[in-house]
Design goal:
This protein is an alpha+beta fold. It has 7 helices and 12 strands. The chain has a 12-stranded mixed beta sheet. The protein starts with a strand and ends with a strand.
Length: about 250
């Protein structure tokens, strides 16, 4: 049976799960009773969380897939994030395929040749993301990006780091989901014309210096940025899928 979560402590078993910690971080930022986020448990070991139009699923050993299939259309979510093995049970259209990469025992070394700026302007950050768009990456819409990241930052649940050259924001990395033990490196961006100069690695190390979690993870699209993250000590942990619920 699927039931709403009323106590934030019920989320603790997923605090070190790369998908589950996104639910934990959403609860810390927005609480359990708002319209932005909703949380459910099925059979005590399967977690579901809806954040805006995205549903997150962490399936346990006693998951009832037929109930999950019937429940998902009722949530109003448009996208489902889950592990590849869970996606195979649902047989829904795949929007994005990729890998979660994990790094443990993070060494926090300061950026070697740039002055890092904490929480740069979100307008500048969004403009940088827009300039970094590719066929597989599109910058989020500005308003929801701004509202969510500014809210999380104000509540101490997110942090951004920027690097400048001549006053211009040229690189940035940010974390929007973290628990006591793990943080997600949510995005890294470097102006296309300045790539290959070490700014991406520098801004990630500057962010790691700021964070205190011993474990960090990152989501990367299939066949993209693997060498970059491996050079920073991340290793593939498991494949993920974003599925269409429409």
């Amino acid at each position: 049976m699927i039931r709403r979560i009323q106590d934030e402590s019920r989320l603790l078993p997923w605090a070190e799960d790369p998908i589950g910690l996104r639910a934990c971080a959403a609860a810390a930022a927005y609480g359990l009773d708002g319209h932005i986020c909703q949380f459910w448990l099925q059979n005590e070991d399967t977690l579901l969380c809806r954040m805006d139009d995205t549903m997150m699923l962490c399936a346990g050993e006693h998951v009832d897939w037929e109930e999950i299939k019937g429940f998902l259309p009722l949530t109003g979510a448009r996208v489902l994030l889950c592990r590849e093995e869970e996606a195979e049970h649902l047989q829904l259209p795949v929007l994005v395929s990729g890998w979660v990469m994990l790094r443990e025992n993070v060494n926090r070394d300061p950026a070697p040749f740039c002055q890092a700026e904490e929480n740069p302007s979100l307008r500048e950050l969004h403009a940088l993301l827009t300039q970094c768009e590719t066929e597989s990456f599109r910058a989020p819409e500005f308003e929801p990006f701004y509202l969510d990241l500014s809210h999380r930052t104000r509540h101490g649940e997110a942090v951004s780091i920027g690097l400048r050259r001549g006053g211009r924001l040229i690189a940035a990395a940010f974390c929007t989901a973290k628990t006591e033990m793990m943080a997600i490196l949510s995005g890294v961006a470097v102006l296309p014309e300045l790539r290959g100069n070490g700014f991406g690695s520098a801004v990630v190390r500057a962010l790691q210096e700021k964070l205190c979690q011993p474990k960090q993870c990152v989501y990367r699209a299939q066949s993209e940025n693997q060498a970059f993250y491996e050079a920073l000590g991340f290793q593939d942990a498991f494949p993920f899928r974003e599925l269409s619920l429409e």
